[in-house]
Amino acid sequence: MDHDMHNMPPPSPSSMTNHTTPHMIMMHMTFFWGKNTEVLFSGWPGTSSGMYALCLIVVFLLAVIAEWLAHSPIFRADSSTGRTAGIAQTAVYTLKTGLSYLVMLAVMSFNAGVFIAAIAGYAVGFLVFGSTVFKKPSEDRKTAELLPPSSGCVC
């Protein structure tokens, strides 16, 4: 433990943003609105409104892709050999899990816009790929037999 930290005054509420001190990094621990945040990578998206919008789009797309992978019948075992299908399913599951955890880590920035983008991405992904809205009645029975009961989100 660094002994210089004992001589430092406690941080004030106004300094509880992403300011750095020589010894520690302070970050938000409650939800906040604003484009000045860090999501997933140091310095990203920064203070630019355009980069913040790109950040929200990336989080939204990561959530949609995670839902697509969770409900996609592309890599199902219906036409492949057992071992090949099992390896493909495992790869898709691993990718879906990794994407879901990236979305979770983005939400842990406590930025309300990022949170809303993640929830909207999961909702749109489920609406398009998981719900019965865009499926024919015959597809519903086939998909229900192939898919395990899962919400798609691993977090």
From TrEMBL:
**Subcellular location, record wording:** Membrane
- Specify whether Transport is a keyword of the entry: yes
Q: How does it sit in the membrane?
A: Multi-pass membrane protein
- Provide GO CC annotations from the record: plasma membrane
One Gene Ontology term of the molecular function aspect: high-affinity copper ion transmembrane transporter activity
Main localization of the protein? membrane
- Which InterPro entries does this chain map to? Cop_transporter
Transmembrane domains' residue ranges: 50-70, 91-108, 114-134
Task: Specify the domain of life of the species encoding this protein.
Answer: Eukaryota
> By what name is this protein known?
Copper transport protein
